[in-house]
Amino acid sequence: MKKFVVKLLIFIALIIGFDFILGSIFSRFYFKVKSGTIFTANYAIRDCKEDILLLGASEISHHFISNTIKDSIGLSCYNLGMDGLNIYFQYAVFQEIVKRHAPKILILSTNTLSDAEKQSVATIESLLPYCERYNAIKKMVIDADSTEKFKLLSNSYPYNSLIIKIFQGLIIKEPKTNGYEPLWGSGINLRLNTNPQRLNTTPKSINYFSDLVILAKKSGCKVYIVQAPRYQINNSAEDQLLFTSLSDKHKVPFLNYLPDTKFTNHPEYFKDGAHLNNQGAEILTNMLIADLKKDNKLNQNSGNDALVQ
Amino acid sequence: MVFTSFNFLIFFPLLAILYWVTPAKYRWLTLLIASYFFYINIKPIFVLLLAGVTISTYLFTRLIDGTNEESKKKQYMVINIVLILLPLFFFKYFNAINEGIFAFLDAINIRWPLPEIKLLLPVGISFYTFLAIGYTVDVYNEEIEAEKNIGILALFISFFPLILSGPIERAKNMLPQFNAPKNIDYISLSQGLKLMLWGYFMKLVVADRIGMYVDAVYGYIPQHNGTSLLFASFLYPFQVYADLGGYSLIAIGTAKILGVNVMQNFKRPFFATSMSEFWRRWHISLISWLTDYIYTPLSFAFRQYKIWGIVIALMITFFISGIWHGAALTFVVWGLIQGIFLSIEALTNKRRMNFENKFNLRNRGWYILISCSFTFILFAASQIFGRAANFKDAILIYQKITTNHGSLYLDMTTMGYFFVGLIILFFKDFRDEYFPDKILFFENHNILIRYGSYLFIVFSILLIGVLDSSQFIYFQF
Amino acid sequence: MERETILEKLTAIFRNVFNNETLILNNYLTANDVENWDSLSHMLLITEIESNFSIKFKLKDLNKMRNVGDMIDIISSKL
User: Fold this and answer.
1) Amino acid A191: pLDDT
2) d(CA C23, CA C17)
3) Which of these CATH numbers, 3.40.640.10, 3.40.50.1110, 3.10.620.30, 2.40.330.10, describes A50-126+135-142+173-301?
4) What is the pTM assigned to this prediction?
5) What is the pLDDT of residues A211-233, one digit of tens each?
6) Rounded to a whole number, what is the distance in Å from the CA of B180 to chain C's nearest CA?
7) How many CB atoms lie within 10 A of CB B475?
8) Are B451 and A11 within 8 A, CB to CB?
């Protein structure tokens, strides 16, 4: 019996040892990734220095062409949109960004307010590899799920289900689109859903969103809230109220592209009900550029720094 | 508290230590308290129901043993069975029966709208009801004496490793073990841990990963083509096997660590060469319960009809198996399909045997392979009814599979991971089936190979297992 | 009837039901030992025995039949 206990303890020690080694190996490869969402997240947290940053989920990543924005406005731009991730990611990452660099313009998507459970779980998962090195991120993760405090004791646990993604990210090179991910083709099975869809917000997500805006403004960023178009789906009345009230509360412009007729009757610009294809993205990007220029020209008159030549 | 939850990983080691520290005479009490604690953490209010079923069963089985009159014994047995079936019927079948009655009333144009009652199914009710019924019948049949210690009976009915999803055990096997606990021995501990480890592997690495793909296809049937639906339907039996089979291993391993031996629930079912054999390898505890308490009495009652008596008994038994899984048309159809398969095999048995013996087919590798494949296809086809959300969907899936082809829906990451898991699982079962003493890993004499295998599986779970807590398919039973 | 005779008659019945002319019975034989003896064929076996020996079993008797030896005991008690 005693022999058994000894063997068990040795085995546990082996697990701890291998866990540490594997975790370190994975960590090393993780931060060397050259493309994909892991690269975007790494870039955002570690390296990004662009003047215009866009934060949100797929309604950002597939919709705003960074290079076009840069060429037109003359400021560097990076699209930090990450599919399927919500406020926990955006706020945690922004806290780390702002420690070393404050962008001049920050574009925030309304979808960032979503706290749908599955989405939030996936978001927390995506933050795990950063907990070791970045404190603000670790705090956010533990706040979202307190059991993570114990799970993070394991070095290799953060890399669960990432092996293939890391491998893909190491061998594929990133196209130089500065975060923009084009979608091609147009969806044939567009679901015609005229019922307004409610965003799954919670008091927590709304608070974090506000905290993000406050932090951004404090750091000197010009913040814009953006609502991306969807095919023939409208905001529910509650959501619309929420967005406009947040915009008023923090005195940041709310750019609502949802009801714009440029999109409501044009299925050819949509890849699916919630996402534009590259064609649609070009149009939307130009609309954003126009709004940014217009807004900053007004500011020029009141004596703020001219952002536009 | 599900087996894969974080809380269980804390609860169980503490309980195991507490258990072995308790003097043998009181260990059953430790387990009883632990089982009720376990159950309360899932849904406190339903503990009352669990206790109620226990008290009723205790009283009536004591009454059965207390009288010598055959008719009185029968009465007590029947009353208890009816009493404990009532809550099961109410919770499980209330809505279905309600809707059935409404549909009927609608058809004859009478409708009295009643408030819709949202009923949550008491966890484990399908399992512990069967435990209690089986025990009552066993006492009546004099297979076992009525347990005098209500605490031991309460433990049998609520035993936490088994209460959520089985295996469905028998009083004859469990009561003596609870009454006379063994001394701690490291072999049982070691075996129990290995069973748990492999169970977690099956559940987290194979079942839940396949589940992600199957859910993605079955959840959006109109958007997927027949090819993807076919592939998902092909994968689904593996998911269920890894899920329920893995879960059963965790349950068995957990019990073993506590010094209790629980029956095997799965025996490499995909190596069965006929549906009859399949049902001796799949969900063994359930089938064996149904055989002993439903099929045997029925086939005995109908034995004058010879082979047709068997067919009737089979159809009724599998009809019950179907509705036990769920109160829906799809489950009924699923059950009846199994009954039909087995009936056909029973009817053609002699002819098949003659054919096989004539050409010595049973010893040919290719014949075994064809038989296994055919059996698998039959089961997978029937499982479309098990997985589809409703009858209409199931028919739609069949339609699409036969007519609507296209390119397969691919999700490289998910498929990559479950492919690895399936290969490992397949290899282990293949070895266990055909050469159980060779190419050992967990049982290898060499300590490096043993420990290496354990570590490999532990890190497979940690790195490619699906770790955000998901529920077992059989959980809402 | 003597146990030997019962065993003889049973052997003939078993060989017929399970289609195996070489089957040999002993007291400890169980369903695990005979190919094709399962719950599906068990009832066929039972009815053959009942008609052959002109007896009627009770359900309780079935539960007590763990092996061929038990079977012979129960048959003999009904003759």
Assistant:
1) 58
2) 11
3) 3.40.50.1110
4) 0.90
5) 999 999 999 999 999 999 888 77
6) 25
7) 16
8) yes
